[in-house]
Design a protein that fits this description.
The chain is mostly beta strands and about 500 residues long. It contains 7 helices and 38 strands. The strands form 10 sheets. The chain has a 7-stranded antiparallel beta sheet. It has a 5-stranded parallel beta sheet with strand order 17-20-23-26-29. A hairpin with a 7-residue loop joins strand 13 and strand 14. It is globular and about 90 Å long.
Length: about 500
């Protein structure tokens, strides 16, 4: 699975080339925006792809050691995503670190640098340049600042609209015909109407003109139908209302592209995202609407099979996966795993929740979701404000635990992998620990303690008496056995950074 390039906290890194006692020094590679070749030295830096290849060459050769890639200042223009997989990772206890060179602020950019501008209208300061075929973007930056594309409002043109079949009639009646004669049919089809709030709050629907004939403007399909005649609870519909026919656009944009292949306003760029292995507690203590993981809207494309039918398995697989997260101690009564308005194409799997009234559900959810193989104490499939029930939901293979579980109730592997693990645990143990949950087993055995800042060397006392046995499952969950048959009242967790005490439930 490709990994995203992540920023690494500077305070955690050793200086480049530094090694601990008995370890060989780190191999330091250098990359620059104009780099090339394979030397990756300070005098002859590589490109980022060249540095990536060099890392792969170094890892299996010679003695095991850390590898550091330093990026020089500047913008690295990428014509494809920079992806990392297992072959790019460290070996054993050694790591591969990509970091900015000292004082540098490198930028990895997938943007296209546009050149060869010419002045088209001196009085209006309008410039133009040819664009590559297939470029489809609304984001143009000039000198590092986003520049608006050419656009006007209906008021600027003293223009009004009335509903007509498939589009509008306009006043003045000749506006569309005049525009067609001025710019031509191809350019007319790139003119885009923008509707802020057209399909309800937080929406900004967009449709382009198809044609102009007399006083009639026809809008492009399927976009126009998706905006004005939205089906209820089908693919890509959610609960967003249809826009009233005849609604005037908020603004009119001359979309600077020759690609009109994707006019549908329901197209979504989300795909193949994962939220996993987080340890979440004492959340929603102030706000009342939200959950541990909150999902709204489309989380992937609707993928079609060769026969034109919806490929459910592929659409789910390439949507959003929420997996292996642990959540407890929720401060409100909403859903821990929250599918909100229009949510679809998502897979909840292998998550653990306890202590909440409602584990999973939402409002105005479209559907097309799996909730399979999770462990929870709260209710599932809670769609109280979603009439009719969301379509195509699969809720099965889940296991219920008590609202106040014992250690034996929890899936140990899920708990162990949630939150910071391995050498990263030290980021949480540098400050005093906290205890948010402490529960005695019903049979008088172990006590389950959850919070944060646990790690190797953690000590647990019950009413001042050291525990007979301690098992640290993760940086936020442990269980311990009291030393005597006495019924303890308080538990204290102590690390090198401090201690925290809680009353047992």
């Amino acid at each position: 699975m490709p990994l995203s390039l992540a920023a690494v906290l500077a305070g955690v890194l050793l200086p480049a080339g530094t090694a601990t006692a008995g370890e060989p020094p780190a191999a330091v590679l250098h990359a620059a925006p104009d780099g090339g070749g394979s030397a990756c030295s300070s005098r002859h830096p590589c490109s980022v792809e060249g540095a990536k290849d060099r890392v792969r060459h170094l890892l299996p050769s010679g003695r095991a050691r850390d590898v550091v890639v330093e990026l020089a200042d500047g913008t690295y223009r990428l014509d494809k995503p920079l992806e990392f997989g297992p072959d790019d990772s460290g070996r054993g206890a050694h790591r591969v670190t990509w970091t900015a060179a000292h004082g540098a602020h490198p930028v990895l950019s997938g943007a296209l640098k546009v050149t060869h501008w010419t002045l088209r209208d001196k009085d209006k300061n309008i410039w133009e340049t040819p664009l590559p075929k297939g470029l489809d973007t609304r984001q143009v930056y000039v000198d590092g600042k986003r520049a608006p594309i050419s656009q006007v409002t209906p008021a600027d043109l003293n223009l009004s609209f009335s509903a007509a079949s498939g589009g509008y009639t306009t006043t003045p009646a000749t506006w569309g015909q005049d525009l067609l004669e001025a710019v031509g049919a191809d350019a007319l089809r790139r003119v885009e109407f923008v509707y802020t709030g057209g399909n309800g709050p937080w929406t900004q629907s967009r449709c382009r003109i198809e044609s102009a004939r007399g006083s009639t403007l026809l809008m492009q399909q399927p976009c126009w139908g998706n905006v004005t005649k939205r089906p209820v609870f089908t693919q890509a519909s959610g609960s967003l209302p249809s826009m009233k026919a005849g609604t005037a656009p908020t603004r009119i944009a001359d979309y600077p592209s020759d690609n009109a292949a994707h006019p549908e306003n329901t197209t979504n760029i989300n795909s193949d995202n994962t939220i996993s292995h987080n340890l979440i507690h004492r959340y929603m203590q102030v706000l009342k609407d939200g959950g541990a993981v909150y999902v709204e809207g489309h989380q992937g494309q609707t993928i079609k099979a060769a026969d034109g039918s919806v490929d459910r398995a592929a659409s789910i697989a390439h949507g959003l996966t929420v997996a292996g997260n642990v959540a407890y101690d929720q401060g409100n009564v909403n859903f821990t795993w929250y599918d909100d308005a229009g949510a679809q194409w998502l897979n909840w799997t292998g998550n653990l929740e306890w202590g909440a009234k409602q584990a999973q559900g939402g409002c105005q959810t479209t559907g097309h979701l799996d909730y399979v193989g999770n462990v929870q104490s709260g209710l599932t499939g809670e769609f109280h404000c979603s009439p009719p029930v969301p379509v195509d939901t699969r809720i099965e293979g889940n296991r219920a635990v008590p609202g106040a579980p014992d250690a034996a109730d929890l899936p140990a592997d899920t708990v162990a992998q949630a939150g910071l693990t391995g050498r990263w645990q030290r980021l949480t143990t540098s400050t005093p620990p906290g205890v948010g949950y402490a529960h005695k087993a019903t049979d008088g055995g172990d006590v389950l303690v959850a919070g944060h800042g646990f790690g190797p060397g953690t000590r647990v006392d019950f009413d001042g008496v050291p525990a007979a046995r301690i098992t640290v499952l993760s940086n936020g969950v442990l269980h311990a056995e009291p030393a005597s048959a006495a019924d303890p009242v308080r538990v204290t967790v102590t690390t090198h950074a401090g201690s925290a005490t809680a009353v047992l439930s």
